Amino acid sequence: MDARSPKETLISLENVAVRRGARALVSGIGFSIARGEIVTLIGPNGSGKSTTAKVVTGVIKPTSGEVTRRAGLKIGYVPQKLTIDWTLPLTVKRLMTLTGHFSASEIAAALEAVGARHLIDAAVQELSGGEFQRVLFARAMIRKPDLMVLDEPVQGVDFSGELALYELIRKIRDTTNCGILMISHDLHVVMAETDTVICLNGHVCCRGTPETVKSSPEYQQLLGDRGARALAFYQHHHDHEHHADGSVHVHEHSHEISHEGHSKGHSHKGLGHA
Ligand SMILES: Nc1ncnc2c1ncn2[C@@H]1O[C@H](COP(=O)(O)OP(=O)(O)OP(=O)(O)O)[C@@H](O)[C@H]1O
């Protein structure tokens, strides 16, 4: 990491296990997240990513092990799914105030920070996947959290939308110096700015920088016959345009995915995502 030091630890988990009946959903989980750090959880379906994130947010108490939070730690949570009654009219502004009282200027500033100020009076039902995700980021950021927990933040968003959201996550980290815990929907791709990747499979299968995880035998073994597709990283090259409405135009071949130690122009399909 860099000039954002000294790194203040926001939360640490030590030897955490969550059991339901005789079954361990996760066990032996240990990691910490510092201010300004981006930690990404990856792992197959059912490997315990959401369970681990819920332990971090405090929604689930571990059956055993220790969770230590910095005193007064504020966490902003962006859920994987939000239960909304889609038949009722709901504006973005109203969504922002459902879980707290905020002034008009606070709401405007939070939406501005995610490039969604123009959507303030829009109906939530009419937002695109990427716009909805931005509004959820704003909803989490309005409390000025020390730590943001993002459960599959690019789910249901197309590739240029994914790039824009990853860029936004980086910007949020840079401007607020919050810690970020992100769950990746994809076992093969993580944001390049990730400081630590933690690969779960009920326990911590392997961890380290994206490069370390990519070359770890445990990660390779977890991939099995899908191993030909090693971990790749989203690279941001500032060769796209941000428009006033928050949309991003990605130039042809501008996004690059670093793969097997090289940087190649790739299409999303070309990467062979499921
Ligand atoms: N409340 C619960 N009671 C019993 N089992 C549960 C409960 N919550 C989750 N599980 C199980 O625990 C395991 C881990 O689930 P979790 O949602 O943490 O995995 P995940 O890695 O986030 O999966 P996905 O990628 O599919 O979202 C799964 O097998 C799931 O069925």
Question: Which features characterize this protein?
Answer:
Rossmann fold; binds adenosine-5'-triphosphate; alpha/beta; four-stranded mixed β-sheet; 274 residues; 29% strand; globular; disordered C terminus; six-stranded mixed β-sheet; 7 helices
Helical content stands at: 10-25%
CATH level-four homologous superfamily name of the domain at 9-74 and 146-228: P-loop containing nucleotide triphosphate hydrolases
Quickly name the level 1 CATH class of the domain at 9-74 and 146-228: Alpha Beta
Overall, the morphology is globular
What are the secondary-structure elements, in order, as H or E?
EEEHEEHHHEHEEEEHHEEEEE
Main beta sheet: 6 strands, mixed
The distinct bound ligands, ions and cofactors come out as: adenosine-5'-triphosphate
What is the CA–CA distance across the termini? 32 Å
Percent strand: 25-35%
Question: Averaged pLDDT, please?
Answer: 81
Protein name: Zinc import ATP-binding protein ZnuC
Biased composition (Basic and acidic residues): 242-263
GO molecular function: ATP binding
Keywords: ATP-binding, Cell membrane, Ion transport, Membrane, Nucleotide-binding, Translocase, Transport, Zinc, Zinc transport
